[in-house]
Structures are given as C-alpha cells and as structure tokens.
C-alpha cells in the first residue's frame, strides 16, 4: 500500500508540471480579413419591426445575482408593457434597440441576446435560482481543477467561464447571436486592466485586435464582464493587431496626434491606438508580420470602468464617431423619442466605521476606494446624459429662432431643426418608499447566489420601480401604453 502512495503523488506532480508548462490557449480566434460590414455590429441587425423613431436603450448594472435578478424583473416588465406605435399594439420590449451591461447584469443580457423570449422560460432555473457561487467554489477546490489552476495562463475566471459555458450558455458563441439577426444590440462590457478603458464585446472593438468575435463564447464574454477583482482573476485575450488589414478611421489618428486636444475624443483615440498599433521587430526579416505593441489583453470586471453600464450609451449620444452612434441617428432625424432605462442594483450597507475613532482597515479602505467613486460617477452619468440631449435640443431651438428671424432655413443641410424627447428612467433601490424595504434591498450581498425568496423579491421590485418611475409613466402616456400593476391588469 505504501508504495502506491508515492507513485500516485509522483503522477500528480508530473500532471501539475505538464499543465503548468502548457502554453496559453486564446479564447478569441484571429480575423482573416477586416470587413467593416460583417460581424456583430449595430448597423447589421435587422430593424423592420423596430424603427429608430422610438429608440430605447436599457443598461444593466453590476451586483452579482442581485443585479441579474433585478434586471430580469425589468425585462419581464418590459415584456408585459403594451404600447401603441404606428397603429400596432406591441410589447415595449420589442422596441428595445440596445442593452448595455456590466458584471452581474451581463448574465441576463447575454442570455436574452442568445435566446430572446426563451429567457422567460429558462433563465431563472439556469442561473437565478442556482447556487452558482457554491458550485464555482466546489470546482475550484476539486483536485481535478488543480492542474489547470497551477498553470500561469489559467485563472479562476477561466474556470468560471468553463462552468458558465457548460451550465448556462450551452457552448454558444457570438456566431449564434449574429445568426439571430435581431435587435436589441447587446453590449457586454469589461475593463481593460492595463488602460482602465471600457472594453465592449462588439466586432468594432475586436477589429482593433484583428480578432473574430464570432468565435468567442458568450460564457467567456460574461466571465470577463463579471471578473470581480480579488475574488476572480482577469481573463486574457490574444491581440493579433496588424494581421487583418484593419485601418483606423481618419478621426482616430488626427485626434490621437493632437496632444493639445483635451477632450474625451482624444483619449478614446489614444486608447484605440494602444490596442491596434503593431510594429515590426528591429531584427526581424523584411517579410515578417508586424507584432502588436500589446500582444495580450487582460480584461477584468466591467464595473471597474463603469458600474451601471451607462458609459457606452452616454458616449453614443454625445459622439458621431461612436461605433453605434445615437447622435448620428439624431442628426439624421431618425429618432423622435429616446428612452434610456437604467437598472441600478447598487447597495449601500452600513459599515459602522463612523461610529468609532478606529482607523479603517486595509480591506475596508480598498473596498471604499473602489465603490464610492464609482457610485458617485454613476449618479453624475445620468445628469450628463440629460445634458447631452438638452444641448442637442437647445441647438435645434436656436436654429428654429434663426429661421423665424431670417425668414429662411438655418440648418446646415437646409432641413428643418429636429428635437428629441428624452425619457431618462432609473430603477434603483433608493426609490423604494418604505424605509424597511429599502434597507432590506440595500443590504443584499454582492454574490453569485441568493435564496429563491430574495430573487423573487428582486424580480417583483424591479417591475414595481419601473412602473412607478415618473418618466416611464410619461413615456407610456405618449405611447398609450400600460404596464399591469402587481396583481392587476390594464
């Protein structure tokens, strides 16, 4: 018996060494040829039954299962909300054009992108009611996982991605999402760990890497978006920049070279260049392909850059150079009503630190440094969004005044000035009227499992908070819409 134990230990050590020496296996394939009209892009999705005149953006925040359940409840409410639009009675969910998600909110977002209405039959059992965190911990502690985790190229988020792939998304890749050819355009967001820039899972972003998003699994995208620092590790993607014939838009190079330009446009351009630039090694053969300046990209939780998923929509509303520019549609007079529904699962449990003179500890300090600025930024983002649309409408008002004074059209193209009705809607625990209920929701943990009763309460409160929002009520009034109250019918 004793002779068998050393033999087994030796075999285990050899297996660990072999796995530790295993090279990095990228989860994103190279792109053979850059094709700006192909892949997962906003402009390639069908919209016959979803015209841009009523443009609806929904954002899902981070917060683990708490955020996923709240977002799911809002999706259920949007499904049940009936509106009249161009003579047709339909669900408001069918008019959603874009979903932008972060971290925990990326689970229902990705599932809806893949399965559409099937989410309402499958997602609760597939994810919301499952002890996901316990199952992930069990796999991490299993001896079968130790050889993989011993590799420097494999981390806890890789293990999580494999679990999500097998148990939640069934091995699906973005190729299946592309094949659906339908809106909404679902943008899962992670954070580039080195630059701190937001990293959206869309083909426009993967073009910078000369990588084909169609070959990336939904599970790996979600795992990247929800790779909470500390508990989970960053996920690594291969950068093939310089190999597919990609050409940056002209504005990128101009903005990147203008170091005097102190604007978000210049910062965005420089961030793009850091991903897409490649150079030939000094001692390489003349025919050798260029090497990316950053051969590997490490992605962590999307909440590091933006915890409510609204940064992308804000940029889209403020810039014509954005991959899915809403401003371009506004300038083209395509959008008449713009609804932005923010599902914010942020909590604020009491810390007790202000009840003592004791110096806050390291963990408390690090957590506060990560969370508080993001919460403040999230609130400011909502104000910035309204300001961007107000500025657009103010310019339209000035053109109208100019036309009245001059007796002629003042718009640059001779067209009539165009205004957009904005409906900013926020679903957040802060708006729960009952203090006891509000405290209960704001003390829910950020984890990947909650009791079934908690999940059901989150689904229910998401529906109620949406129905109670004044801007949402105003939107429904203009659309002759109705969302059945809890236990009631329209």
Task: Lay out the secondary structure.
Layout: H1 4-20, E1 54-60, H2 64-80, E2 82-85, E3 88-91, E4 96-102, H3 106-115, H4 119-128, H5 132-141, H6 146-149, H7 156-167, H8 174-180, E5 185-192, E6 198-200, H9 203-208, H10 218-225, E7 235-238, H11 250-257, H12 264-276, E8 278-279, E9 291-292, E10 296-300, H13 311-318, H14 326-331, E11 337-344, H15 362-406, E12 421-428, H16 435-442, H17 452-468, H18 470-478
Parallel strand pairs: 1-4, 1-11, 4-5, 11-12
Antiparallel strand pairs: 2-3, 5-6, 5-10, 7-10, 8-9
Would you mind describing this structure in some detail?
It is a single chain. With 490 residues, the protein is of the alpha/beta class. The protein has helices at residues 4-20, 64-80, 106-115, 119-128, 132-141, 146-149, 156-167, 174-180, 203-208, 218-225, 250-257, 264-276, 311-318, 326-331, 362-406, 435-442, 452-468, 470-478; strands at residues 54-60, 82-85, 88-91, 96-102, 185-192, 198-200, 235-238, 278-279, 291-292, 296-300, 337-344, 421-428. The strands form 3 sheets. Strands 1, 4, 5, 6, 7, 10, 11 and 12 form an 8-stranded mixed sheet that branches. A two-stranded antiparallel sheet has the order 2-3. A two-stranded antiparallel ribbon has the order 8-9. Strand 5 and strand 6 (198-200) form a beta hairpin. The longest helix has 45 residues, at 362-406. The termini are far apart. 41% of the residues are buried.
